[in-house]
Amino acid sequence: MKDTLILAIESSCDETAAAVVKNGRTVLSNVISSQIDIHTLYGGVVPEIASRKHTERVNQVVTEGLKQAGVGLEDVDAIAVTYGPGLVGALLVGVSFAKGLAFASGKPLVGVHHIEGHICANFIDHPELEPPFPCLVVSGGHTHLVRVQDYGKYEILGRTRDDAAGEAFDKVARAIGLGYPGGPKIDKVSDEGDPDAIVFPRAKVGDSVYDFSFSGLKSAVLNYLNSCKMQGIEVNRADVAASFQKAVVDVLTDHAMTALDEGGEKVFAIAGGVASNRHLRAAFEEKCNARGIKFYRPAPILCTDNAAMIGAAGYYEFMRGVRSDYSLNAVPNLKLGER
Ligand code: KG4
Ligand code: ZN
Q1: What angle (nearest 5°) sits at the alpha carbon of residue 118, between those of residues 122 and 335?
Q2: How many contiguous H segments (helices) and E segments (strands) does the chain have?
């Protein structure tokens, strides 16, 4: 059978990325131009700067993506692009560029959901993985426990009621002076801390066993820091980081294990930027092993934002006949499973 090549473009937040993916599973190129160094100066992503940097870089990144894959635009079967959710101005850059390319080349255009991309990153590293399977998506903007019923078909079991897991990492990191982006810094500094030093709350959401809430945990950390300050006690940042991280990992693993016990599935996957957290990966590995559940997680570089995952998701959308027209627009709050 003829190979299907997807050129994918991602610009929903602070990474300008392009990739060429073969048959949804094989990455021929994966170019990521990160803006982290610029946003670090401001302690978080500045949307206007993100849009401007995407505009400056998108052409070069896409050109490089094709070059590294050793193909030309004429060789690809479709152009996939993230059209939501994300920062509207950032998304618009990728969407507009992809529309221009599709128009100029006559290639089909496929709009892809960013979270679907995160989930599909698992298909790249695990050729044997096929739906159905439950997946926990934990990123800077999202915390979703999802049942992947089929390619492109998702049932949402639970979601966060307030902050996303990554957002909590970023806010706590800022509060203890680690800077942006917080997740990787907390991951690292907590190696030197005691995860049992401080007991932070594990929030339960009353009417749903699968929903999450992280704002209470974030407030508990802020309260702890304040009370230390008022009492003149020196804060041990590594202990705070490790204890906070343990609280997040406990809640995420508990909810996911409840869903697995209930659904009886023997496979489970994680995805999204927070899924690159070493402690979260180790905790899931251990809990899944104990239950005889096969645990899937993408390589860390495919957990954080990239275009290869958009190429994987775009392939499956393309194969099931999804096509976008030139009216495709950025949808900042696009829901999973919606078009
Ligand atoms: O998926 P992603 O790259 O972008 C979104 O779609 O949001 O996720 C970014 C988030 C940030 O909040 C970042 O702090 C978090 O993922 N993150 C981590 C780690 N690496 C990135 N959180 C915890 N531990 C990490 N190692
Ligand atoms: Zn993301």
Answers
A1: 135
A2: 11, 10
Q: Which domain holds residue 75?
A: 5-119+303-319
Residue 88 — very low, low, confident or very high, per pLDDT cuts 50/70/90? Answer: very high
Give, for ligand 1, the residue of 142, 169, 186, 277 to mutate: max count of ligand atoms closer than 8 Å to Cβ.
169
Among 266, 258, 330, which Cα is nearest to 50's?
A: 330
Tokens of 277: 């957290």
What's 163's domain CATH number?
3.30.420.40
Q: Is residue 62 part of a domain?
A: yes
Number of domains in the chain: 2
- Report how far residue 124's alpha carbon sits from residue 92's, in angstroms, rounded to the nearest whole number: 26
Neighbouring residues of 220: CB distance < 8 A, sequence distance ≥ 6: 200, 201
Q: Are 276 and 165 in contact (CB under 8 A)?
A: no
Answer yes or no: is the C-beta of 298 below 6 A from any ligand 1 atom: no
Token pair in block for residue 198: 């401080």
Q: What is the pLDDT of residues 156-209, one digit of tens each?
A: 999 999 999 999 999 999 999 998 889 999 999 999 999 999 999 998 787 788
The closest-lying atom of ligand 1 relative to the alpha carbon of residue 180 is: 14
Complete DSSP assignment for 152-216: TEEEEEEEBSSS-HHHHHHHHHHHTT--SSHHHHHHHHGGGS-TTSS-------TT-SS-B--HH
Same domain membership, residue 41 and residue 185: no
81 and 199 part of one domain: no
Please work out whether the CB of residue 195 comes within 6 Å of at least one atom of ligand 1. Answer: no
Same domain, 170 and 274: yes
If asked whether residues 12 and 157 sit together in one domain, one would say no
